[in-house]
Amino acid sequence: MRNQFVLLIALVALLLTSCNNSLKRQVETINSQCPIDLGILGEVTKVDLDGRTIVYHVSTNSNVLKLSRLEDHINDVKQGILLNFVDDKTSLTQFIAAQCNIRYEYTDAQTGEQLVIDITKDELKNAEALVGNEMELARRRIENFVATGRLQLPMQVDEVTTLTDIFAEGDNVGYVYTIDETTVPIDTIDQRIGVLKESIGESLKHNDLSMTMLIDALTKDHKGLIYRYNMSKSGRTFDVTFSPEEVVRIQMLQQQ
After folding, report:
1. Largest alpha-carbon pair distance within the chain?
2. pLDDT tens for residues 26-40?
């Protein structure tokens, strides 16, 4: 009996050592990819291992997003992290096999303010159910994009344009802007709406990670995109729309 007990202890120790070595290799692999762009949420600067918890160190910019605004939306941020892991099936499978936890430590590069978000091994395992379910994954990604995108609003885009809302409505996701009508006459927008659409479409071909992921989700969920411009004085509204078919073509151009 004693020999069997010693053998069991040895096997457990061997298993723990093997899992720990696996986690170390995963951390080394992730570090080799840093910095990792997270869109408005900043960038992963490095990753380390704290026991059986993989810790992602994220640097944020308060000019883009204040960490204090995330405190009441922890679940939305956590959902976004989990959705990203679902896209990275290899890492998700390895994390689940190693039974590790995940921690994201956000630090504002300007103020030093910090925010910690913990994700348990059980939450990682629950997220695995979305692997292969492209439609549901796309739907949840769109919902999360809208929820987290609103955290940075209102945002001054330039001297005359302010981004005031992001919405999901019916078969579209939309951005709402307010235009300073004292600087940009209403006739200018009215006469140049086609040029404006062409300019937006061109910018979408070369956009950041967040927009690339949104375009992918819109394509899979067959949704369109709306850019809505509200004039500050008259209240008149102009919509620049991209149909689901046009969104698909944008994605194809992004991938070229």
Report:
1. 90
2. 889 889 999 988 877
Residues 6+ apart with CB under 8 A from 24: 49
Dihedral angle, C-alpha 168, 142, 238, 251, nearest 10 °: -150
Burial 195-234, CB ≥16 within 10 A → b, else e: eebeeebeebeeeeebbbbbbbbbbbbebbbbbbbbbeee
Contact 165, 178 (CB under 8 A): no
Sign of the alpha-carbon dihedral angle for 33, 80, 121, 55? positive
Residue 32: count other Cβ atoms within 10 Å of its Cβ: 8
Residues whose CB falls within 8 Å of the CB of residue 189, separated by 6 or more in sequence, listed in order: 179, 196, 229, 231, 238
**54 near 102, Cβ under 8 Å?**
yes
What confidence tens digit (pLDDT) does each residue in 14-63 have? 333 445 677 888 889 889 999 988 877 889 999 999 988 999 999 998 88
What's the predicted TM-score (pTM) here? 0.80
Q: Kindly report whether the peptide bond that precedes residue 35 is cis, defined as omega within 30 degrees of 0.
A: yes
